Amino acid sequence: MPDLEPLKKEAALRAVALVESGMRVGLGTGSTAKYAIEEIGRRVQSGALTRIVGVATSEASDALAREVGLTVEPLDPRPLDIAIDGADEIAPNLDLIKGLGGALLREKLTEMQSRRLIIIADHSKLVTQIGEKAPLPVEIVRFGFLSTVERLRQIVPGGRLRQPGAQPYVTDNGNYIYDAQLRPGSDIAALERELKGTLGVVETGLFLGLAERAFVASPDGVQELT
Ligand code: 5RP
Q1: What is the mean pLDDT of residues 159-169?
Q2: What does the entry list as the binding residues for substrate (predicted)?
């Protein structure tokens, strides 16, 4: 496997080139979005960008943004001009799986409100169909989580509660995550509706029809998908 870090950075720089002074910017979460936040910070520090306000999609991105000198505000009802974020799977029509980094709920809340959602990734995230490589993260409330997991298993049989150690993984919102195994080729719009209608489910990592474009970097260069 080649070193993906330079590729992630290259994709991030292409997206940051779309950020203009005065914009309210959705700041994604993860190892690729980190490069975008750092670059926006660099441009603000150098004076190339002014009056930028960031809205962070996780506590980690909030902390990083402040560290690199960005003004960060909470999400409010005003639209964002642009949001830049990574993804775990990118289908040819730009449907996405997100949330392996655990920030899916704040990402969806923030990015739904953005005029433009720009995805940045290395080529390992490209799939021909959603569900091909990554599990689908589903954020669930802690109360009665075993019952919610049972309900989810009726809908998507494969999967497990995210539990990296002795305790389940806890999101920034105090919830748990169930990582579902999808069958590629399933009707994901119908699945999204069914999951969202399931008691105990807060949000899913399916981002359907939200992304405007993706910059996907490979050793051959950066591909722009629209
Ligand atoms: C976090 C996310 C991330 O954008 C996604 O997991 C990609 O992360 P990385 O750039 O580290 O591969 O959805 O909730």
Answers
A1: 97
A2: 29-32, 85-88, 98-101, 125
Ligand 1 — pocket residues by CB below 6 A?
28-33, 85-88, 98-104, 107
Determine the atom of ligand 1 nearest the C-alpha atom of 86.
Answer: 4
Domains of the chain, by residue range, sit at: 2-126+206-224, 134-202
**Atom from ligand 1 closest to the CA of residue 31:** 11
Q: Identify the CATH number of the domain defined by range 134-202.
A: 3.30.70.260
B/e letters for 144-164, b = 16+ CB within 10 Å, e = fewer, are ebeebbebbeeebeebebbee
CA of 88 to the centre of ligand 1 (A): 6
Chosen CATH of 2-126+206-224 out of 3.40.50.1360, 3.40.50.300, 3.10.20.30, 3.40.50.2300: 3.40.50.1360
**What average pLDDT does range 187-195 have in this prediction?**
98
| Cβ count within 10 A of residue 225 | 17
The reply to whether domains 2-126+206-224 and 134-202 share a CATH topology is no
> If you average pLDDT over residues 67-81, what whole number do you get?
98
pLDDT category at 2 given cuts 50, 70, 90 is confident
Q: Of 107, 111, 139, 203, which is the active-site residue?
A: 107
Residue 211 has pLDDT above 70, yes or no: yes
For the question of an ipTM over 0.95, the answer is: yes
Q: Which parts of the chain fold into alpha helices (H)?
A: 5-16, 33-46, 59-67, 104-111, 145-155, 188-196
Ligand 1 centroid vs 97 CA: distance in angstroms?
9
Q: Active site includes 107?
A: yes
